Amino acid sequence: MADLLIVDDEPNVLNALRRMCMNRTATPAIPDPHVATFAAPLEALAYMRTNRVDLVISDYRMPEMDGASFLTKAKMLQPDAARMILSAFSDMEGIVRAINDAGIFRFVAKPWGDTELRASIVQVLEHRDMMLENRRLADEVRQQQDIISRQQLELVRLEAESPGITRVRWTPDGGVLIEE
Amino acid sequence: MARTEPNTMRSALVLKKVPRQSPVLDAPGAASITGKLNDFAWICALYELGQTAAAGVDPLKVQQDILKHIVSGLDAESGSIALIVEGTDDLLEIVAGTDLPPGTVGSRLPRGVGVFGHVVATGQPLLINGDAAETRLPVQINERRDRATHSAMCWPLRVQERTIGALAVNRAAGLPKYSVEDLDRGQVLTSLLALVMANHRMHVERENRILELSTLNDAMQRMNALLEDAQNQLIQSEKLASIGQIAAGVAHEINNPVGFVLSNLGALESYVGSLFALAEAADAAGARSTGEPSPEGVSPGQALRDGTDIEFLRTDIAALLAESRDGLGRVKAIVQDLKNFSRGGADESWELVDLHAALESTLNIVRNEIKYKARIETRYGALPEVECLPSRLNQVFLNLLVNAGQAIEANGRLLIETGVEGTEAWIAVEDTGCGIPKEHLNRIFEPFFTTKPVGQGTGLGLSLSYSIVRKHGGRIDVDTEVGRGTRFTVRLPLRQPRAAVPATSV
Questions:
Q1: What is the mean pLDDT of residues A138-146?
Q2: In this predicted model, what pLDDT tens digit does every residue of B56-109 receive, in sequence order?
C-alpha cells in the first residue's frame, strides 16, 4: 500500500499523474497505489491533517503558495511522508528552499518521463520504508535496552496510526483543537 | 616684383604717381585707344567672359581669357593680374599673365613691394611712362633692355571698397605711351573686371558651400540610416531581452501540457494493451464456445472483462484524449503567439489589426508570469481595426504587461481596458502594484533608466515603447500613485495620416 498525495494547479496534470501511478502493467509499477490529488495546496494540507500519506508530490508554481512553502508545511504535519517536487519551473532560490527547508527527496523536471518518474517514486518509497524500518529497529533495540519508556513507544505508535494525535492542543475551556 | 613680372616692369621706366584727376603728363605721344574701348562688341565679349566666369569654368583659364581680352582691348603688349590671397591682407598671387615665364602664374609676390604692392597698398591707379629708375617706388628692375617697357598702367581691382588685387598692362617702346585718359578708361574696365572676379569668387564659394552642404547632407542621411538601423536592432534586442524575461513562464506553459500529454500517451498504451488482451480473450472464448454462454451464464470474456474494468477504460480513454487534445492545442497556441510576437523586423508593413487579438496573443505569453500573483481582468470596448505595425505594438503591450506583473508583489489585480475616443483607440494596462515614485516619473521613458534588479530589466522597455507609439502618431499617458498602482494608457490614431490603406492590405 502506497499512499500518494499529488498537488498541481493544472487538473490535466493531476489526471495524467493519477493514470501514470495507477498503471499496474508498467515496470516499475508502484505497489498497490492509492492516489489523492489536489489542485489547491491548502486543501492538500487539510487532507494531510487527517490522512496518513507516504509520499507528497508537488508542483512548484501554484497560486496559493509555492511548492517549497507547501512541502515545508507538509513536513511539519507529517515528517515521515517523503517529498518530491515535479515542476517545469523554479528559480535557484526556490530549489534551495525546497532542499533546505522542505527536505525534498527528488526534484523532477516537467515534462517528465513516465518510466523515470515512476522509478523515482518507487525509489523514494523504498528509501522511506528503509528509513522507517531503521528507526523501528533502532527503537526496538532501545526498547530492549529499556531506554525508551512504554509511553513513548505508545506515542510513536499512535502518531504513526493517526498523525497529529500526540500533538493535541487544548482550548482554555478544555476543548480539543482539531484544526489549526 | 620684377622677377615674377618681367614683362610688366621693364627697365628704364619713368614712374609717376597719377592721381585720378591729374593732368596729362605726356599726352602728346598717347594714341587713343578709345576707339577700341567704344567697340560694343568688345564690351559684349568681356561681359560674356564674365558670365563664363560665373558659370564656374576653371577660374585660372577664365582670368587668363579676360586678361588677354583686356590686353588686346588696350592695345597692350602684355599684362598680368594679381589677386590678394584669401585670408590675407596684402599677400598677392599672380593668377594670370601674358608672355610670362612658365611657373609665374600661381607664384606669390613679396608683400608690399613693386608696382602691384604699391597699387594694392594705396588703392590708386598708376601710369608709368619712361624710366623706372626715376621712381621712388621700391621696384626691382629686371634689365631687359632689348625690349624696354615704354609705358605701363596698373589699376587696383576693387569690390565694395575692398581691394582684391591689381591688373597691369604694358607697352613696349615703339608703341605710343598711355595717357591719363587711358588710365581713367581702364579704371572703368577694371572695376568691371573686379566685379567679374568677385562674382566668380562668390560663385566658387557658393559652389563649395553647396558641395559642403550636400556632403554634409549625405553624411547626415547616412547617419540617419545608421541610427534607424541601430534603433531597429535595439528594438529587436529589447524584444529578445523581454522574451528572456518571460522565457521561464513560456517554458512552464509549454512543458506542462507536453508533460501530461506524453504521460497520457503512456497510459493510453497500457489501456490499449488491456483492450487488445480483452479482444484476444473474447476471440479465443468465442472460438471455443461459439459465443454461447456457458451453463453457469458467465462467458470467459465476461470474466476477463470484470478484471479489466471496461467501464473505467471507456470513460478514462475519452477523458484522456480530450485532455491531451486540449494540451496540444495550448502548446500550438503559445508557439503561434510567440511567432506573432517575434515576427517582423525593420521591413514590417502597416496592417489593419484587431488589437484585442493582439492583446490576447501577447497576454498568453506573459500569463504565466502574472497569474500566480495577480488576477487578470479584461474589459474590452468596441474597437475597430487599427492601422499599425502589429509586432511592434505587441512589443509595447508585452512591456506594459511585464512591467505591471513585476510591479505586483502578490495578490494583485491586472486590468486591461480598451476603447475608442474620437479618431483614437486607447488601450490601458492598470496594475495594483507598487506605483512609481514622483522622482522617477519623469525619467521612466529615458533609455537605460531602470529600477529593476540586474537581469530583470534592460531599461529600454518603456523608452522603446514610447518611440514605437510615437511612430504610430500616438502617445502614452501614465497615472500612478505609490502603493496604489499604475495605469499606462496607450492612445493610437485609428488610421495613419499617409495615403489611405486599401482594405485588401489586412
A1: 80
A2: 567 677 778 888 888 888 888 888 888 888 778 778 888 888 877 777 777 787
| A141 falls within a domain | no
Which residues does chain B have within 8 Å of residue A23's beta carbon, measured at their own beta carbons?
A: 266-267, 270
- Please enumerate residues of B whose Cβ is less than 8 A from a Cβ of A: 248-249, 251-252, 254-264, 266-267, 270, 273-274, 316, 319-320, 323, 326-327, 368, 371-372
Count contacts between A and B (CB, < 8 Å). Answer: 81
Total number of domains in chain A: 1
Taking the CA of residue B324 and the nearest CA in chain A, the distance in Å comes to 8
* Distance to chain B for A8, nearest Cα, Å: 10
Q: What is the pLDDT of residues B258-315, one digit of tens each?
A: 999 999 999 999 899 888 888 888 888 777 765 455 444 445 555 555 566 888 888 9
Q: CB–CB of B251 and A25 under 8 A?
A: no
> What's residue B503's pLDDT?
41
Contacts of B249 in chain A (CB under 8 A): 89
Q: Which amino acid is at A80?
A: D
3-class SS of residue B351? strand
> A12: domain range?
2-132
Alpha carbon distance B165, A56 (integer Å): 104
How wide is the angle at C-alpha A25 spanned by C-alphas A19 and A31, nearest 5°? 75
Residue B54: band (very low, low, confident or very high) from pLDDT cuts 50, 70, 90? low
Strand bridging mode A82-87 / B351-353 = unpaired
Q: For residue A112, what is the nearest residue in chain B, using CA coordinates?
A: B259
For domain B15-207, the CATH architecture is 2-Layer Sandwich (3.30)
Q: Which of A159-168, B46-55, B275-284, B317-326 has the lowest mean pLDDT?
A: B46-55
- The CATH number of the domain holding residue A34 is 3.40.50.2300
| pLDDT greater than 50 at residue B406 | yes
Is the pLDDT at A180 greater than 60? The verdict is no
In a domain, A6, yes or no: yes
Q: What is the DSSP letter of B14?
A: B
Shortest CB distance from B270 goes to which of A23, A91, A112? A23
Closest residue in chain B to residue A8, using alpha carbons only:
B256
pLDDT higher than 50, residue B177: yes
Is residue A142 assigned to a domain? no
Do residue A63 and residue B320 have CB atoms under 8 angstroms apart?
Answer: no
Evaluated on CA atoms B110, B114, B120, B121, the torsion sign reads positive
CB B13 within 8 A of CB B143: no
User: Model confidence over B157-169: pLDDT tens digits?
Assistant: 888 778 888 888 8
A28 touches chain B (CB under 8 A): no
**pLDDT > 90: what percent of chain B?**
24
Q: What CATH code would you report for B343-506?
A: 3.30.565.10
Q: Is A27 on the interface with B (CB under 8 A)?
A: no
* Domains of chain B, residue spans: 15-207, 343-506
The residues in A 112-131 lying below 8 A from B, measured between CB atoms, are: 112-115, 117
Do B358 and B393 contact (CB within 8 A), yes or no? yes
pLDDT at B305: 54
Q: In this structure, is residue A139 part of a structural domain?
A: no
The single residue listed with the C-alpha cell 522565457 is: B247
Nearest CB partner across the interface for A15, out of B256, B274, B323: B323
Identify the sign of the CA torsion B36, B38, B40, B43: positive
* Residue-level pLDDT at B30: 41
| Residue A18 sits at the chain B interface (C-beta within 8 Å) | no
**Cα radius of gyration rounded to whole Å, chain B:** 48
- Cβ-defined contact of B256 to A20 (cutoff 8 Å): no
A111 vs B258, B273, B274: nearest CB? B258
Q: Which residues of A137-161 are buried (b: 16+ CB within 10 A; e: fewer)?
A: eebeeeeeeeeeeeeeeeeeeebee
* ipTM of the complex model: 0.74
